[in-house]
Structure formats: C-alpha cells, structure tokens
Amino acid sequence: MNKKFINYFSFLCILLALVIIGYAALTFYRIRTTNLSRVSTQFESLKDSIATSYLAKGSFNSDFFKTNIHRAFQSDPSLRALVVLRDNSDVEYLYARNSEYLLQRPETFSSTEESNLFKIEPVFEEKLSSSIILPSTEKLRLDCVYGVIEKADIFMILRNALIPISILAACLTLLIILYPRILRKPAEEETIAEEKGEIKTGESRRAEEPELSTPEEERVTSSTLSDSEIDSGGLFSPQSGLGWEEYLEKRLDFELRRAASFDQDLSLALLKVQPLKREESLYAEIAKLLIEQFPFQDMAFEYGSGGYAIILPNTELERGISEMEAFRKRIREHFSLKKLSIAIGLSSRSGRLLTGKRIITEAHRALLKSEEDPARSIIAFRSDPEKYRQYIASTIQK
Predict the structure, then answer these.
(1) Number of structural domains in the chain
(2) Domain stop point among 152, 167, 188
(3) pLDDT (tens digit, 9 = 90+) per residue, 287-325?
(4) pLDDT tens for residues 138-172?
(5) β-strand 378-380 against 266-274: which pairing, if any?
(6) Does residue 164 lie in a domain region?
(7) pTM of this prediction?
C-alpha cells in the first residue's frame, strides 16, 4: 500500500478522531453547565421552601416539614441529599435518597463537620451551600448534593461519539480490504492485453523497451515458448497451473515500475527442487502448494527445467526470506517421504530502479550459490547501492 497514502489517511483518521473526542467533551461540558444552572435555581427554591416550612410549624421534625422535603425529592430526581446544619455544625435535619451518598451512619452526625457528611462523585455531582435566613438568633446552613451529569447524558454522549467512530472504522476496514485489489487491477488489465496478442513474443517485447546491459556472466538463459504454444496454453501452463516463464520478465518490469511509483519494495524468489523436471507429476503438486501459499496465481511462474519463480510485491528482502523458509518447510512436511533437495535464491528492489532482467539475474546467481552449498538452502542477493550506482554510470557511458 502506498506509504504516502497511508500517512495521509492515518493523519485524517487521527484528526477526525480528535474532532469527535473534542465534540464529545464539548457536549459533556455544555450539558453539565446547563444542568448546574438548572439545579442552582432549584436549590434557591428549595431553600425558600425549607424556610417557609420551618416557620409554619417551628420545627424540623414536624410532619408538614418532612412531607415538603419528600415532595422536593420526588419532583427533582437530580437532588441526592440535603442537610440543615446549625452554626456549631450540629445536624438539625438530614435526608438522603439512599445510604450510598453518606460517608457515615446517620446516628454519628450529631457533631460532624459538614465537609465529611456526603460522598460526592467529582464532575458528576455538585454540592451547593447557602445560609437560611430565619427570624432567630441562630444561624442555619443548607447543604445539598445534586447530580449534574446523569447516566442518560453519558449514554447520549457516547452514542453520538461512537456512531461516527464506527463509520470511520468501517471505512478504514473497507479501504484496507479493497485497496490492494484496486492496485492489482492495472496488472490484470495488462495481462488481458497480453492474452489478446498485444505482446507477441519475448523478442518483440525486448525490442520495444530499453534495458540495462548486463555482464555476460550474469545473463540467465531461459527456455522460450513458440507463439503456437502460448496461444494454445493461454497465460498459464495447463500442466502446472503457473504462468509461463516467457511472461516472467514482462510482469517483473511492470511490477517494478509500479513498486517504484508507490515507493514500495519488491522481492523475487527462485526455487529449485532436485531431482525434479517439469514433466513429472510432483512438479505440478508442488506448484499447487505454491499457489495455495501465495494466493496471487499471476505472480507465480515456471522457471528453468524444474524450478519456480515467485514475485512478492510490497515485500522486503528479510520478509521474503521468512516467507520462502515457511514454504520450504511446508514442502518438506508435505513430501516427507521423498528425498528432495530444495534451493532458493532471492533478490529485491531495495529502493533501486532496475529492470526485470536485472532482478532475475541477481536472484538466479543467489539460486546457483544455494545449489552449490546445500547447507545454506536459502541465499539472498544483497545489493550494494554504491556499486549499483557505478554500474549504472558505466552503462550510460557505453
């Protein structure tokens, strides 16, 4: 996947997430401010009601006073608890919806400081205090605990925040699923063009596109197919189900150009199983495992007399080594009764601008080294950027 696109899309997702979180926080603040203003007004009304009820009967223990307090709690669900205190902090009257709002048992409140009477949840609850003016020499104080954020408010805020976040996550998931397929569509169109005859033979293809010259010792000799064989077999060998070797270089040229355009890496793996020929049934069986392991059939090709070539798009060299090691183990486990010698050579783009022929040459040389040293079943060609620049410069001068 394009790194620039990933960076831009990640930045956009983070920005949208921050906007959603900020909007949720702003909504929380506005709801709390509105509720606090409302309960402040109700607190003033409750204070006046308490003073009136007390003056009517002259006692906080009268049925008339208690009935008015109960009505106040019934009419205002946000009112959690209240206490009327004398100037010496003695509790004159206390009422709470339930004991969870009290820090101590009621019988211990006779001379408790007001700050320790109630259990208050910060942010979600607020304590309001005010003096009660009565025609007496004693001073009274009213403390009330109000809920300023209810569960319904939290649910609404979370719902409004989770809906856009869920949509954003769904879009991200859909993009991750579809983007690789969109990238592969041009490759499929080019493959179709080849099948229709726009690209006839390997010779005509090489004549149309300039290539970097390669030293003679690095050239790879490959078998070619006649036009009649290609026309009769299509893009894939009917025997193995893999792509014809003739198409490997052309497909590599295309994939390398695309990898360079999107600043991606690309690896090529060449695999040789000895003793094995294309005509043998075992060759087709291993080809079937190859297609299962690497699901893009148009990236797997026949190679040489009994080998395989696998293009690994958007894959760095180290990851390519790991994937081929896993495939080598799978072959050994699947054909445990057969004595097979498996050699694998790899090369990668590694930030270079190179042709399909060049990367085939590098992977082939690594494959030959692997065949020479059975103890090292996988060998990777690691490019030297400085030497490659010198090679390019010498090629241009020629």
Answers:
(1) 2
(2) 152
(3) 999 998 887 888 999 998 889 999 999 999 999 999 999
(4) 678 888 999 888 888 888 888 888 888 888 788 87
(5) unpaired
(6) no
(7) 0.43
